[in-house]
Design a protein that fits this description.
- Two copies of one chain form a homodimer.
- The first copy, chain A, is α+β, with helices and mostly antiparallel strands.
- The first copy, chain A, has nine helices and ten strands.
- In chain A, the strands form three sheets. In chain A, strands 4-5-6-9-8-7 form a six-stranded antiparallel β-sheet. Chain A has a two-stranded antiparallel ribbon with strand order 1-2.
- In chain A, helix 2 crosses helix 3.
- The longest helix of chain A is centred in the N-terminal third of the chain and has 14 residues.
- The first copy, chain A, binds a DNA duplex through helix 3.
Chain lengths: 259, 259
Amino acid sequence: MLDLGEVDRSDDRPPYRQIAGLLRERIKLGRLTPGEQLPSESELIQHFGVARMTVRQAVQELRGEGLVVAEHGKGVFVRSAPPVRRLASDRFARRHREQGKSAFLVEAEAAGHTPVVDQVRVTNETVPSELAERLHLGMDDRVIVRARRYLADGVPVEIATSYIPETIARGTAITEVNSGPGGIYARIEEAGHELKHFTEEVSSRMPTPDERKVLQIGAGVPVLTLLRTAYDMDEVPVEVCDTVKVSHAYVLEYDVPAQ
Amino acid sequence: MLDLGEVDRSDDRPPYRQIAGLLRERIKLGRLTPGEQLPSESELIQHFGVARMTVRQAVQELRGEGLVVAEHGKGVFVRSAPPVRRLASDRFARRHREQGKSAFLVEAEAAGHTPVVDQVRVTNETVPSELAERLHLGMDDRVIVRARRYLADGVPVEIATSYIPETIARGTAITEVNSGPGGIYARIEEAGHELKHFTEEVSSRMPTPDERKVLQIGAGVPVLTLLRTAYDMDEVPVEVCDTVKVSHAYVLEYDVPAQ
DNA sequence: ACCTTGAACTTGTCTAGAGGACTAGAGCAC
DNA sequence: GTGCTCTAGTCCTCTAGACAAGTTCAAGGT
């Protein structure tokens, strides 16, 4: 049986916070493992000798942190944490492309996960207005849009949408669902745009309902958003990639010179 | 007077959600403006004809979304959105330090915000075990811990905690609350450790209750975490800085070479 | 073999009330 | 004016109970 500790009435923290703290501690220490069911409300009431609203307030706090998920009629469960992956800053090294590997595959394998790309959609659209400036395009110019989902060990971890100017992608495998070895960056370089550098804009927010569905995450789990722009040797933007990552599946690593 | 509408008992949404929806609508439509006070609990009870816990549950929902902020003894107020700050990757350029400005001050001013540093605490502790390896320190080595809060235009946007090995900080203004012009990086360089580069590890998660309080955000607002390690010319780590940023207040910009 | 029913569990929502803690302002004493 | 107390208003926490709704499973009927 799980040892839960007791509420200390002389503590200056209110009981519901203490209870939340005790449960949080058990989760962090691994006494309650991912997927495991928390004691039911009745059990917590019995154990701590408090009213129902008090234990509910405690559980509410953990739900707000995304640590647990309540399922009506079933119980409250510890959220199962997907695998953590690190994105090293050399993830676009040319040697990987020359080996025919895309960035995601390289990293997932390095982290010991089985990578899968999923739900690939390739379309030809007019450039979204908020991206036109980044791609140095006019309002009516067309782009190839490549949307896909990434999974690690079968768990969805990221959705990504790339936008490549049609003038660059035309006649290459970029317009195909299977973009060939080394991914679209290899195709872009073959098209005469040797890559010089990328800029990345990182932020974080709560997912939209659609994103929750595709990424199979519950309410209370934030996402990392990363907007990457790729430039060739002439500083011409050749691709913008909009990615939405499950927050706890990623740690982004960057190296910044002190100058 | 604010027109709030009524609860529809035939609606399939529970009353507390309807009330939350009505208030949310008034906020989005600008009928309740940032900084403005919501009707008090008593007024909401009177108006909607429900119990106290019901209106509290409605307000709780809005707090969770970060739309409103409750202040004990004063009231509930519409949250004023903190300004977005873009952190470019040249924010540690030496020319800024030579002008006597720390990174936060430079950037906030450049973006047209009024920066304030707040709640500065300086202590001498043994190095936290999870940071010992990053700082190349043993379990019992001591570090100077500098914790502080940053505000832009009066709104909390970030809390940061720096860890500097005592061997480096000893005898410098790093151990003082006021670390002098150019911030601690200027002091570290004066101590003979010219900075070469930084690594940053970016992730995102839900805030802890403590962080929610200090940053004045609701339970539904995620935070960006950034763990920065500074290295000198000999690749010796001279500082680790653990920052927690309000997600919607920041966009982190990085430049990555294609190699 | 299949389905229905119902009991026993879970969490979700709501009511009605209590005391506590914090804030701001009015009034008073110095 | 300054500092104090008092008070009314605010949100915070907790209690005790009620009914609703979703899940699971076993007993019983077909």
